[in-house]
Amino acid sequence: MKDTFVGDLLKPKALGNPTAMRQTFAEYRWEFVIAVMLVLAAVWATTLSPYYLSLDQLLFSSRNLVFTGIMTLGLAFIILTGEMDLSLPSILAVCTVSLAKASQANLPLPVALAGITVIALMMSAFNGFLVAKLRLPALPVTLGTMGAYRGVAFIIGSNVGYTGFNNTYKWLGTATVGTSPLPVMLLVLVGCVAIFWVLMHYTTFGRRCFAIGNNSAAVTYSGINVARTKIGTYMLGGLTAAMGAWIFIGQFGSSRGDNANGVLLGMITAVVLGGVDINGGRGKVLGVLLSMLFIWTLRNGMGLANIAGPIEQLIIGVLLVTGVLVSNLTTRGNWRPRTRKKVIAGPSAP
Amino acid sequence: MIANTNSALARRISTTLSRNTLRLRVFSVLLSLAAMLAVFALTTTNFLTLQNLKVIAFNASLLTMVACGESIVVITRNLDVSVGSIIGFSGFITAMFAAAHPHAGPLIIVVAVGIGFVLGLVNGTIVAYGRVPSIVATLGTLSIFRGFTYIVGKGVELPSSYLPRWMTNGAEATVLGVPFVVLVALLVVLAMAFISRRFPIMRRVYAVGSNPGAAVFYGLRANRVVLFAYAACGALVGFAAFFYISRVGTISVILGHDWELMALASVVLGGVATTGGSGSIIGVLFGALMLSTIDNGLVLAHAQEYWRMFIQGFAIVGAIALDAGIERRIMAIFRNQRV
Amino acid sequence: MTAEAERLSIRSVSKSFGPVRAVRNVSFSIEACTIHALVGENGAGKSTLVKMITGMLPPDSGEILLDGRVCKFFTPLDARRSGITAVYQDPKLFPHLDVSENIFMGFQPRNMFGLVTKRRMYTETERMLGELGVEIDPRALLAGRSVAEIQFVEIIRAMCADLRLLILDEPTASLTPAEADRLFAVANSVKQRGVSVLFISHRLDEVRRIADQVTVMRDGECIVTAPAADMTEADMVRHMVGRELTSFFVRRESRAAGAVKFEVKNLSLPGMFENVSMSVRAGEIVGLAGLVGAGRTEIAESIFGIRPPKSGTVVIGGVELKPSSPRQMLRKGVAYIPENRDDNGLIVELSIACNICLAVLDRLGPWGFIGRSSESRFAKPFADDFEIKTPSLDALAGSLSGGNRQKVVLAKWLGSEPKVFILDEPTHGIDVGTKSQVHQRVSKLAEAGYPVVLISSDLPEILAMSDRILVVASGRIVAEFSRAEATQEKVMMAASRSPLLVGAGEERP
User: What are the C-alpha distances in Å from A13 to residues A20, A271, C401?
Assistant: First the structure.
């Protein structure tokens, strides 16, 4: 039965289209809520410990924010088109252990970076191929590649960490701007946010992603190659994993097969809380940024309150589930996630 | 619509193929298993010894029970990646309970199954009624359940000496030379095979996975069926957890880590399509056996343990691709399109 | 006819969708134990009426009585429980299960423990199959069955639940003549078991063969209900199309057309259409008439590259090529306005401006960058030109009425600067006022020199707009009429020819 759209759609919704004439409060409803939650979280963290607002503390704890944040931006694009990639952290791990090998072989940094970029692009392109060209279901398939790539990371890197990175390798993760304590990698993160913001809201690529996430059949009927765009988003994700890997080894100074094992939950939660509809077609980079900061602040606070790791993950898990539930609720005002339309002429997917 | 003149013959061939495709699929799993056994037997020493085969069977038993549970969920076109955390939580609570009430006997098993059942209900509610995509939902509950385990356990580790004697002894016991656990697993498989063929609720599980739209159309209460699937999965996983804690050395918070991929790999390898509606429990058994054989073979061949993860992941991808191809063929004929 | 002998009574039922009046004051009765045919063109209101009978839509006014009792169905399940079941082209069955389980799903025979007894299920299935004279292996997987067999399974499933009225919607569309015969035999068996059958079909010869009574609908109204023996095919056609061609539609002045700008040569896609050829001149509108399922949309989608053809070529702007993807055909200048507007034509969740720019995203800005107002700047002239009624171009496309949505789709394609327009049912589901606006636009396209292919099931429309009409039936072009010689009856007769008459002796899927 066809849903009737007209009444619901006249209600203002945060749609992520920046050419709106009036950027009303209603359009940024979701982002506003997240911003409020962020402030509350920061306040809570401050009450836990007087050290929270100290620069040292903040900068130190940004270690986890940057590389995760960059990958989260990449993941947001993939989810925007209505797909998913669970293997990004695994790709990052393959890159870190590959950098270790490169470092052992004393390869110059540009060569090593080029190498991991190629590796990451190939792995993510493979994911994209499976999902976009072979039309396999993204969730179980990337669950499989997540394991496969993690296995590759272990095979290359084993469980024994490598710490012998020379300083050029570690530059991005350790350098600061001039004599100030501001780490370069934070600037990189800011830069990435800016780039992704433009990419998502001010380029044809971004437009196509929004369109595909809403109705990929209509996009095909408009003469756009949907598979190509989707593979593009996957490769973009791979790129973010490669960049994250470089930052990672700088920050932590070591690499191992299990790197970034456990950041996936936080990434998906950040994307979902950021207002990106889990079924695609909706979202803003601003929202993702705010929710990234929110989760980071929350984690920070929990660390200060000496809350144990598993409990942290529990809370993030709760946030994820409630985030999706709330998102479903606000889509149509009823309990129905948006259905995605399939290409009429294609093989009938379930 | 018009057709070629030779299409009649082509249709007949393709209908026979697709009719038997699902059966062929399970058969191919068996073939692969046999081939793998042969390969390992020829290339590594000590593979075909009775001792070694017992080890494979032993390891496969637990995996089989968990995979049986997971397969019910997969048949409904959903996934459950929280099985590892269910093992962890259920196992931990059960261990604590057993340590406190060593004479409770079979009640301990009930506790294990019951906890798993409840956790499964939580999963099912979120997926079926909350309309949260199943991987996202169970990814969330994975962490939530793990967190609960921590809260309850407070980071304490229980050595297996705390468990009642009969549990730890039972884990090692053999009946006519066959490990007890293996017999239990076989019983579970047989029971599941019977149930999946004769119980109306399980037939509805297949129907919902095969064509959810039609299931709703005929008033089969698809939501309740999905809820049941997750609850049944949880119960089976809880049951497996009971045996797991009897075997394992220490019971800690990270119990059950990494089971997600193994369970799913066994299920998918065993011919249960993630596109839903098809799959047999026997296939799942073969899938679990195949995975355990690979594991074992790798160990004997002195390969690194990490190959296991790689192979599991790749097996999942390969099996999904294969099944997607089969599914497309089935649906194309079903909708009278060109195959 | 007494009330008791009436199985289904439809009394003054009406249904409107906004300004579109789909069903207008329809009244007729289906007697018990009869096969009652419902004929009418596409858009006559048949499917809306059936949706109301089966509980998918509530009628705006009037009532439906089953066996003398008023029915109020809220869901199709209610209708099924009362004994009304419809069998559509899209099977609602479970392909992974076997035949008998498909029939008995939800109410399998059980033994005293509550377990399913497969043996009884199989014997019951065999019995029912035998009663209806159908031969299918009850243990076979449903997925491998032919279309005809799947239909039978659906019918048998329906029979299990105290069936009063069976609705068959275009059941013979994909059947071979032999399979159609078997279906008719089954329908008669069903009838003998006390079930009434509502048979919806375009194949008038079949209607005469199998139906006891015929109801003809036209433009949402019930025109006549009479015994099938009293009506010839010509009579039926006359009722179906016998409307006055009022000046509702813009009567296009036929101009001398220019050179041939668009050609299709021997396009074939096995199973869909065969040997389709046409040539369209600049400024010419060629209409493709035919019944639903004749293959016109498949031909158009093939030309556009969505279902690339197996053989044959397309000539655009002097270049001959074989369609392989929509992207390629868009680049070569094909503009295809799809039949299913809301699913394929535009994206209702995006803004109007965005929709209009969808085909030309690459051209909006340098290096792929789209400025804040690039989209609205590009879209505004089109929106004004088409008089799209909206407060702002940033409003979501879903807020527009059907007619305005179609304008958005037209604007989108006009913006892509194509070389040929293919319009598939462009005024489907649009109110009369906007319809004529759309017709005017299509006329203007031709006047501007574009070759235009117009696919329509609306006979007055296609007669008024086209310079030439090609009639498509069963995937082939079976007739061609010039503007002067075309009449509604001629076109309908050509289109309704049974596959038996078109290429006799051929096997069909």
Answer: 12, 18, 20
